[in-house]
Amino acid sequence: MSDPAPVATVALVGLVFVSHSSLIAKGLVDLARQMAPSVRMLPAGGTDDDRIGTSFAKVAAGIEAADAGKGVVVLCDLGSAILTAESALDFLDDETRSRVVIADAPLVEGAVAAAVAAQIGGDLPAVESAARSARASHSGAPAGEVPVPAADAGPGHAGVDTTVTRTVTLINADGLHARPAAEFVTLAATLGVPVTVNGRDAASLLAIMGLGLTRGARVELSATGDGAAAAVDALATLIESGFGEA
């Protein structure tokens, strides 16, 4: 029914993209694989004979192929695609159904965010949450804003963490587009300390891409707490390297 899903050395949450168009579903898999090459992603687009519409059989087969035991997040484009996906879930056994969710998220933005969350090892709730976070971006609302920690009140005020900030310049010719943004977010998620980029959550792909950072942009990295300096330095080094593109 589609290209074979990649086999990851570690089981990850899988994804199924349900669209009325087979070309859209397949193209979305191609796009998301640029950022999440180890994730099982299956297109379920079009009718059984690839006309415009949806296919119960394609959705059911996609869920089966995408499931590596960690669960599957299903994303849909239009209302009737959701109905088809819900029908497919009704025919699953109870155990399989318990680890399949249909995310209430815009198809393209949600798929990209979910793919990156799955690639870095997020569990089923985390991947679904990443997909749903795309609704804020899709509606134009700010996404991924992080509160600024209180400033150090000075000597004698224990328990206040030190904030480390560093500004670097983006050198990529095409700016922080999808592939380097995904690489950046993947690293940020492993650092064990919250980091912001120009005030946005460094571990949120849509928040970072929403900044629209182009070549020459000044990128302010900030982190607070134990390991803040190492985290900021690691991300700054990645930006200064040009992500292998410059």
Give an overview in words.
By secondary structure, the chain is α/β, with parallel strands linked by helices. The chain folds into two domains: 14-139, Rossmann fold (3-Layer(aba) Sandwich), CATH 3.40.50.510; 163-244, HPr-like (Histidine-containing Protein, Chain: A), CATH 3.30.1340.10. It is built from nine helices and eight strands. Strands 2-1-3-4 form a four-stranded parallel β-sheet, with helices on both faces. It has a four-stranded antiparallel β-sheet with strand order 5-8-6-7, covered by helices on one side. A hairpin with a 2-residue loop joins strand 6 and strand 7 (200-201). The model is unreliable at 146-159 (pLDDT under 50).
Offer a quick outline of the entry.
Keywords: Kinase, Transferase. The protein has 246 residues and is an alpha/beta fold.
